[in-house]
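Severity: low
Component: inverse-folding endpoint
Summary: output formatting inconsistent between runs
Steps to reproduce: submit the following structure tokens with default settings.
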């Protein structure tokens, strides 16, 4: 009986590993297409450098503080949470409809494939272009630059600090927060982000994505 259970366990782990490997190779096979798309965004002025040095630093600090050093997965950096920028992008590039649970295995493999094949600025450009930003004047918004223009009529680099922090704040729950309204909860998160950006506080732990350490 023990031998059967062990064999089943091995098969399960092998299947999960294979599912992750499938995601990795799917990303690798499509890397040239993704790279071309990213380069076009960068050439069009919608890449990470177009945020400006300080704005880019703030975005990474909030969304994925270990982004510049990890290879798609980060299980240790304070404030990193369970999903890196690369994993977040993988949900949109690698799935028609992402389902939590076992889907996380393929998502992680896909993210590692992206990290292996693309430069960090290319990954960021694709993420900025595909990220969900909540409801705007003309309906649901996709893309960080698009949301900045729709809500404020200006590029992110030209926003006031509080305006930019509100854009960063909505990223964690675009279906919950309201950029078009006086949203108390959104403003509270923006205030926490302002404290984090200024160095006045830090996340309490790896899982502190809501920045309770900056409350």
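Observed output (run 2 of 3):
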């Amino acid at each position: 009986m023990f031998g059967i259970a062990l064999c089943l366990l091995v098969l399960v782990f092998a299947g999960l590993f294979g599912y992750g490997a499938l995601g990795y190779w799917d990303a690798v096979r499509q890397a040239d297409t993704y790279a071309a798309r990213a380069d076009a965004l960068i050439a069009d002025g919608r890449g990470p450098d177009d945020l400006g040095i300080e704005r880019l630093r703030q975005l990474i600090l909030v969304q994925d503080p270990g982004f510049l050093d990890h290879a798609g997965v980060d299980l240790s950096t304070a404030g990193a949470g369970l999903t890196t920028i690369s994993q977040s992008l993988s949900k949109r590039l690698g799935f028609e409809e992402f389902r939590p649970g076992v889907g996380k295995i393929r998502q992680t493999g896909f993210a590692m494939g992206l990290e292996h094949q693309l430069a960090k600025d290319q990954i960021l450009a694709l993420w900025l272009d595909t990220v969900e930003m909540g409801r705007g004047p003309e309906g649901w918004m996709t893309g960080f630059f698009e949301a900045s223009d729709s809500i404020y009529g200006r590029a992110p680099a030209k926003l006031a600090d509080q305006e930019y922090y509100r854009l960063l704040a909505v990223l964690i729950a675009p279906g919950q927060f309201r950029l078009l309204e006086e949203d108390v909860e959104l403003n509270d998160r923006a205030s926490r982000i302002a404290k984090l950006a200024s160095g006045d506080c830090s996340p309490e732990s790896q899982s502190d994505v809501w920045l309770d350490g900056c409350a």
